[in-house]
Specification:
Layout lengths: L17 H6 L8 H15 L1 H10 L12 H23 L5 E3 L3 H9 L5 H20 L2 H8 L2 H22 L3 E3 L5 E3 L7 H18 L5 H21 L40 H5 L4 H29 L12 H17 L5 E3 L3 H6 L6 H13 L3 H4 L4 H4 L1 H11 L10 H17 L2 H18 L8 H14 L1 H8 L1
Antiparallel strand pairs: 1-4, 2-3
Helix pairs in contact: 2-15, 3-4, 4-13, 4-15, 5-12, 6-12, 6-13, 8-12, 8-18, 8-19, 8-20, 9-10, 9-18, 12-20, 19-20, 20-21
Length: 485
């Protein structure tokens, strides 16, 4: 596995200009065209957040019964993603895109907003982002990453791949909650035009991928979207009669339907009521505030780490020990993204696992997220155009990317009981609990426990013992609260 810090001669190419030198395009075996395609693929794979985040954040009521509004949240979601992606690309020079985190936005909407006003919620997110940034500056966040054994890092990448595949299957409606079973195929069976579009899109993408067609992922999304538009136009008739998962693929009427003036009125909402946190948070108690910050911090910390590891391994951007050169810059940009999420009232912004779609297209540098960010900025104006791509057309890419990341499982030494069982738990718990952070937590806990049982506790890095203890407390949070209460 090559390191991105190797010399340009590793690819046989020399930098062709300042842009090439800064982003290491030739050094990492990429081209400008490939990076642009990768940025496009990542955008289409994650553009759903501009639609979905408003449905979660924009409709949830805070402690006072106030809501933020769907159009307003859509505008700031795209804006925060645009700025964060560009920042990540310029600062880290890696192909990681950032936007409001799925799962984290649910925690914000349904776990935090019910106990405080929305302005206080976003102030809490700003505080969490500042704490993350401090952890990066002090080197703690990077040290934790380096302390994880290489085998567990590979397992995290594999687990993220399975998680992505499940996200794709669920978002497309191909897999749903079952009656009498946790999950099942479709709604009791595979039926309906949207499911067929997903299957066609998957077959097209697989065919293009195995034939090594340049732009396979992006071409698969475009082809599936075109078919979906035709099907909706001929058979749909409006009102989502065909049962699309979220976005109904229909062309807007007239040129004016392609453009919508964004409403950025939510920016700076966290300042409502002043910045005196003692006065603002005294009603709910600082113990509660600390617990809420800890919950966000833990999920954000390890979701980011898991995604970074998974995408980097897929793109062969990690060194022989599974470490990512320049990871501090990645984590710093991610921390600023979280702060921007609070400032812009768009929830916690974090690295997106869907970045793997761009990496699957060959993206290896920060140009890809810059392209994604530029498209996100356009999305603030062209929300109707973004909504042309239904889940069923975009999510086949996530399934293929899941396969690509799964292939790394051969690099895990399952003959080592601690590494084997730890890796197994990390891999299965990510998709089974629908959480990257949970998978990392159970993987590290299992690795530490088995090492202790085998009398090899001293081989476990002290930081891993600390993190394992933190996860143990986190997983036992409910019974601990019940005992205290």
């Amino acid at each position: 596995m090559k390191s991105p810090s190797t010399s340009p001669s590793s690819t046989g190419k020399r930098p062709s200009g300042p842009l090439d030198r800064y982003f290491r395009i030739s050094e990492r075996g990429s081209t400008l065209g490939t990076e642009i395609r990768g940025g496009l693929a990542t955008f289409f794979a994650m553009a759903y957040i501009v639609v979905l985040n408003p449905l979660i954040i924009g409709t949830a009521e805070d402690v006072n019964g106030e809501t933020l509004g769907i159009p307003q949240v859509a505008a700031v979601t795209a804006l925060v993603a645009a700025i964060s992606c560009v920042l990540m690309g310029v600062v880290s020079r890696y192909p990681f895109a950032i936007a409001a985190g799925m799962g984290l936005n649910a925690v914000v909407a349904y776990g935090i907003a019910p106990v405080m006003p929305w302005a206080d919620v976003f102030l809490l997110i700003v505080v969490e982002g500042v704490v993350l940034l401090i952890l990066v500056i002090t080197g703690f966040r990077t040290a934790v990453f380096a302390a994880i054994p290489p085998g567990i890092k590979v397992a995290i990448a594999v687990g993220v791949g399975l998680f992505l595949a499940l996200v794709g299957l669920v978002n497309a409606g191909f897999v749903q909650a079952g009656e009498g079973t946790p999950v099942q195929l479709g709604n009791g069976g595979l039926q309906g035009w949207p499911i067929l579009i997903f299957v066609i899109g998957l077959l097209i993408t697989v065919a293009l991928y195995v034939r090594k067609v340049p732009g396979a992922m992006l071409l698969g999304i475009i082809a599936s979207t075109a078919i979906a538009l035709v099907v909706e136009a001929v058979l749909g008739g409006g009102d989502n009669r065909l049962g699309w998962s979220l976005t109904v693929p229909a062309l807007p009427e007239g040129a004016g339907g392609l453009v919508a003036v964004p409403d950025f009125s939510l920016i700076g909402l966290f300042t409502d009521g002043g910045l005196n946190v003692v006065a603002r948070w005294s009603d709910i108690g600082f113990a509660t505030v600390i617990m809420l910050v800890f919950t966000l911090l833990l999920a954000d910390f390890f979701d980011t780490m898991g995604t970074m590891v998974g995408v980097a391994h897929q793109g062969d951007l990690a060194d022989e020990n599974g470490n990512i050169p320049g990871s501090r810059e990645v984590l710093a940009a991610d921390s600023f993204g979280t702060i921007l999420g609070g400032l812009g009232s768009a929830s916690v912004a974090t690295i997106y696992a869907e970045s793997a779609a761009g990496v699957g297209e060959g993206a290896r540098t920060g140009i890809a997220p810059i392209v994604t960010g530029a498209l996100m900025m356009l999305a603030t104006l062209l929300t109707p155009l973004v909504n042309l791509v239904p889940f069923e057309a975009a999510t086949p890419v996530l399934v293929i990317v899941g396969f690509m990341m799964m292939t790394q499982v051969i690099n895990i030494d399952f003959r080592d009981p601690a590494l084997g069982l730890g890796s197994f738990m990390a891999i299965i718990m990510m998709p089974f609990t629908y959480s990257i952070a949970n998978g990392i937590g159970f993987g590290l806990l299992t690795y530490a426990f088995v090492s202790l049982v085998l009398g090899k506790g001293r081989q476990v890095h002290p930081l891993l013992w600390l993190i394992s203890l933190v996860f143990l407390i986190h997983f036992a949070e409910a019974p601990i609260n019940a005992l205290i209460g």
